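Q: Hi! First time doing this. I have a protein sequence and I read that you can turn it into a structure. Is that right? Here it is:
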Amino acid sequence: MESKTFADLGLSPKVQAAITAAGYVTPTPIQAAAIPVAVTGRDVLGIAQTGTGKTASFVLPMITRLESGRARARMPRSLILAPTRELAAQVAQSFEKYGVNHKLSVALLIGGMSMDDQVKKLDRGVDVLIATPGRLLDHFGRGRVMLMGVEILVIDEADRMLDMGFIPDIEKICKLLPPRRQTLFFSATMPPEITRLVSQFLKDPVRIEVAKPATTAKTITQRFVYCQDGEDWAKREMLRNLIRDGNVKNAIIFCNRKRDVAVLFKSLTKHGFNAGALHGDMDQTSRMDTLDKFRSGDILLLAASDVAARGLDIPEVSHVFNFDLPWAADDYVHRIGRTGRAGHEGHSVSLVSPDDLKFVADIEKVTGETAAWLGDPPSEEDVANAGKRRRGRGGRGSSANAGKSARSRSGGENRPSERKAAGGNQQRRAEPDTAREQPQTQRGQQSTRARAPRQEDQPEQAPQQAQAKRAGPPRPSRRPRAADSWTDEPTAPRRAPVERRAAEKEQPPRKPQPAQRGDERLGFAENVPAFMRKPARPVKVPGR
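A: Yes, that's right. Below is the predicted 3D structure, encoded as structure tokens:
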């Protein structure tokens, strides 16, 4: 197959001039196959691994087709749906770069940005509307955008849309669009749900598949490092050593949880590294500012969640570190695809704890490559026991180390000195509680509201007392009970339950005495009228 240039793809002279100014000469395989079809107006189903230039595959033919025509208020001429805010903003930057010779108006509808500014752009009319599904439906529900004028629809990173639960929103949006339109559909993988979506909304598409789904680029050197300890503080120390010794120009470090991103960022800055953080809990302005600093080189290490794993085009990233192995093997492919892009050499290093060994096997199945280990590989026993440890909600390793894991995730490095300090606290907590060892009468003198003595604080009971305790608690009497150890008065000896009920039956019923002022021992039962009292049940006494 002879190599093509951008001049052979049917693009307009203005677009070709912008490509030349950007420094590109030879199109990637997905661009060489998709652009000539997209320029003609046919539907395209593009399947290619991440980092192959899919964004330019639809941006360049869209600019060529939108050169003629004019946008009307609140009726965009084209629509691009992206799964994340960062990917949508990146597509907008591509239009700014390749549309430098055009006067196309572009609007970006994403969360975290001012809705008033977005509405003003829509009112003036836009040629290209780039949006996330949720924000687009929000504007449509408020009547701020109408979709009957869309000529071109682009769905980017469709498999990521599926992972994030956007498929119902995509179906709703597609039903609002005019049936006579061009649809460009791009995805790295083709799960059954995506296949159903394609058959429903694309008309006779041209399928373009330039690489096997879920394969990694050949320009990426993949390595795995086994962390026997598996604790977060040990993995952070291992990561710092790899960064210092690995000739790292810049790197993205992926974690599975947003809170782990924050802890890792704090640890890196504490040890003098030039680092930034990127995760979903940050506001949009901070996220875009962090990405811009990483692109420009002001930040060299970017601790990120999977929000940065899909579609972000950051040129010449030398390394990708997986601080946590992803739970899905496909996400591993997308993560390491942030390096080795556009023919550049890249490196990926994954830290593997004993509990993560089961994920390594899944990655080997998806990529079709055997894991290459830096240092000592895991033993056969470690591989056999992978995933069999007890794992808590937020920790790694066995339950015996759960406390250690929790301390390491709280932000500190949990070094031996910290563990020693923690041991000192435990020793102080183990000192006897002097208030607990005081006699009950003495505690009663201190406070009548002191807590009841716990069972472990009580002296051993005699066998007769233990047997009486097992017989059950006595039924409450209607007479005011004598004061116990919580007051200064002595406690009257208790009778057995049967003898006490028999004695009460022989005695004549007492008449309620009027409450005397200042008598603190009169209870509520003395003031209950006779007709409300529950008569005592007859008790059978043995021998009668």
